Amino acid sequence: MAAGLLLKVVGFCVWALFWLGGTATVSTTALAGGDAVVVDAWSAVAATDDDFICATLDWWPPDKCDYGTCSWGLATLLNLNLSNKILLNAVKAFSPLKLRLGGSLQDMLIYDTGDSGQPCTPFVKNTSAMFGFSQGCLPLHRWDELNAFFQKSGAKIFFGLNALNGRIPMPDGSLGGPWNYTNAASFIRYTVNKGYDIRGWELGNELSGSGVGARIDADQYAADVINLKHIIDSTYQGNPSKPLVLAPGGFFDAAWFTELVSKTKPGQMDVITHHIYNLGPGVDDHLIEKILNPSYLDGEASTFSNLQGILKSAGTSTVAWVGEAGGAYNSGHHLVTDAFVFSFWYLDQLGMSSKYDTKTYCRQTLVGGNYGLLNTTTFEPNPDYYSALLWHRLMGTTVLSTTFNGTNKIRAYAHCAKNSQGITLLLINLSGNNTNRIYVTSEGAQAQSARKEGRRFSHIPGLGEAAELTREEYHLTPKDGNLQSQQVLLNGNVLATDANGNIPKLEPVQVEGTQPITVVPYSIVFAHIPSFYAPACR
């Protein structure tokens, strides 16, 4: 008993030293047999939207195939089974989930409002057409059905409009001429008249910079965005709130994005959206190697940093979103982008993008392709669904600077806790061999005044205050240790829906706060630390 008490006292002393922060913390790590995550608890580095997590729904027909595999099935906007219980419950669990409706075929989609002068026909395979399909059409009865689902599920909807109507080929290979917005404006009016709640309208898909399939110069695009803003202002006149204007939904190109921001300020474009597929094509056999390579993951930071710099320099109110991110293009890769291993990439992206003031991150897809949060045929959640849900419930909007003093195979991110005291720490272990025992400390304590030091010391809970010392941990591991498993364990228990399609409860384990956080090989840990003193979170 005396030995147990001694261990507890020693553990508390080590924990207290870490908690106090500063240089003494690092020198203690070797003695403690662990490494340190250092969190700057005194000031925020960025802020996200409260509903940072977003997912996409696409337009692809069932015969959209990549590398001989047809992975879309009946899982897109024109054919999705909206009565599926798991689908409804999966969206409702977020309360709310942002949904971005769009994708490659949105710029070949007309809306059946009666003004297009064309019949409303579905997408048909046509190898000579852009993206391999003819022009398609959204029947208004389907739009009505979709909105009934959105209302029932509580989703927040952002709709991607066709930006190619009216374009003409230019000598430099781009498409020019002003956007013909007649059909889009008619569709927006129909939507408003029906009382459908659309939170944002986005112009175009992947037409920025060198474009994918087609491209439009930034100068023309800016003029088109301003026209969209005028349409929204007039159509929503008298409404208590107007939807956001988003653009361009394309790949980051510094010069192109700079010009678009410059020519749409002030106040013409609320959100600038960009897409991320930094792992390359879905057919790549080296996707897992890339995902497990810290240097490769770090490569995307420059995109977030450069866009943040453009917005700051411009002095604009426009904010940045990731409007679509599937990691590997051409529908992803089965048993990689829909398996446990992809949570390493996905959660790292969420953490990294947050640090650079990205307000919302839209995952390609909610369902459809080989990168859905839900299984394309059964709608059963894939591991990334639970990763997204845990982020949504645990990570607050205030982003804290976080560094780890050990191996680069540990990725560490911290936010103020959501709707709770303290912080939530996300730890990702890319190593398949090493278990890490990690202490958490606050940076900057030594620089504070003696008065602040004294006040800070008073926040260290005593040994008798067991509740104060407790933290909540959520450990995610793949079933059977298989990185390519489509089942994930939370604290050792398989997560799966029940017979009624209900999303399982996500229950933490309670851990004594004096103990280090144990991160086993190939695992992910969310740790909510309510007793962590973080002035930035007040």
UniProtKB/TrEMBL annotation:
Pfam family membership, one: Glyco_hydro_79n
Places the protein is found: Lysosome membrane; Secreted
Record keyword Chaperone present: no
Annotated Gene Ontology cellular component terms: extracellular region; lysosomal membrane; plant-type cell wall
Keywords in alphabetical order: Glycoprotein, Hydrolase, Lysosome, Membrane, Secreted, Signal
UniProt cross-references to Gene3D superfamilies, sorted A to Z: Glycosidases
SUPFAM superfamilies: (Trans)glycosidases
GO molecular function list: beta-glucuronidase activity
Lineage top rank: taxon: Eukaryota
Topology in membrane: Peripheral membrane protein
Database matches in PANTHER family: HEPARANASE-LIKE PROTEIN 3, HEPARANASE-RELATED
Role description: Endoglycosidase which is a cell surface and extracellular matrix-degrading enzyme. Cleaves heparan sulfate proteoglycans (HSPGs) into heparan sulfate side chains and core proteoglycans.
Family of the protein in this entry: Belongs to the glycosyl hydrolase 79 family.
Protein name: Heparanase-like protein 3
